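Aggregate trends can hide what the representation actually does to any particular protein. For completeness, the protein is quoted in full, as a sequence line and a line of structure tokens.
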Amino acid sequence: MASEPGQTPNPSWFTPKRLLLIFCVINTINYVDRGAIASNGVNGALPTCTDDSGVCTAGSGIQGDFNLNNFQDGVLSSAFMVGLLIASPIFASLAKSHSPFRLIGVGLSVWTFAVTGCGISFDFWSITICRMLVGVGEASFISLAAPFIDDNAPVAQKTAWLATFYMCIPAGTALGYVYGGVVGSQFHWRAAFWGEAILMLPFPILGFVMKPLQLKGFAPLESKKTISSIETNVSEHGDDGVLAQDQAFIRGTRSTSKLRNQFTRFSKDMQELLYDQEYIINVLGYISYNFVIGAYSYWGPKAGYSIYHMSNPDLLFGGITIVCGILGTLGGGLILDRMTSTISNAFKLLSGATLLGAIFCLVAFLFKNLSGFIVFFSIGELLIFATQAPVNYVSLRCVKPSLRPLSMAISTVSIHIFGDVPSAPLVGVLQDRINDWRKSALCLTSVFFLAAGIWFIGIFLRTVDLSTEDDEDQSATSLRGKMKPLLEGNSDASSQA
């Protein structure tokens, strides 16, 4: 893997394909967790009693054990988003002063701890807090993984590599349905969370022991020794003429100045994102899209069971989602590469695929028989998932290199806080009111048309690919030289100013 001029060469073992493979496994485990908590085996159901015979059935899973109504159940599905929304911009900002690779290790450590906590929770509030911490742990990975992949992917296959990474979203969610259904029914819903923690454990360890990689648009860490030696010399000379209390005051002033500079830099970067028309249109369309996808992923098995009386909705929805998600996501990436990967072409694919997918999904829920639903819903999901690579391609390409982590973080924050965070509880409220899953599903699916319309506007914007432009921050070595990799030991980097 070739290094950029002035950067520390990447470790020989950590090839681009291995990086992609590891990130795909981590992303899959993240979404296995989301699918598992939505599965009937883990999520469960409230106790029920028949009016005629008076026979009562005991509750099961999280909902049964904690006696949650549909609104609380929907809140539980969205709780991890709170941590994700708060922590994503923080991790993106820290990437400018700490090693992004180490930050991923920190985040995955928090995720592993929090998922373990979900398995030992004892009421609604305890599991809700643990779900929030799951979001904090995931935030670093969501913000930083895509820029790493974009840097290391072959030029002619960048969208296909992104598609491979984002393919793990539907695949992981679908596997989570199956995993949660099997583990929850055979053992206990708590065991599903403990199994996830064991699967994730090797990756935070790897994030700390591996030599960190560098991101395009961020200065390398080789000047760390030089900066450290200069600071040591300054400290030694200061001992001769500066009192200890004065040195403490100077250090405190410097810390305050660093925080102020970090906040100023963050505000400037945010302003730049908000003035980017392509970015705003892309995120608005993604919000509408994710509003539907989020509610689909959580309420899908229950809606399918109610409408079509499926014998095993976890396996059926899991099977449809994993096949259509993999084929659709990879297909979207390959098609965009074949069309020539540009922002304008990405908007064309986004609007067209979403419009057609919305039509097929809407017709699917109108079918009375299960076979018709499966055929049309499968085609709809193939088209809907074709958007995963193009939408993230736009977020990476419409900003300069050093803004990519923040671009991904704000995109993630936006699609969740305005998309799937409110959608699951709102659909729960709608269902509580009308008590008809078919009508609830039709109302939800219609939001796809809004997403298609917003992305259609993007086709007519004057788009510019900024990812290859020189970033003025890269030349500011006087500022970037102070970067320190989080929790890293001694560095072998050369000392250059």
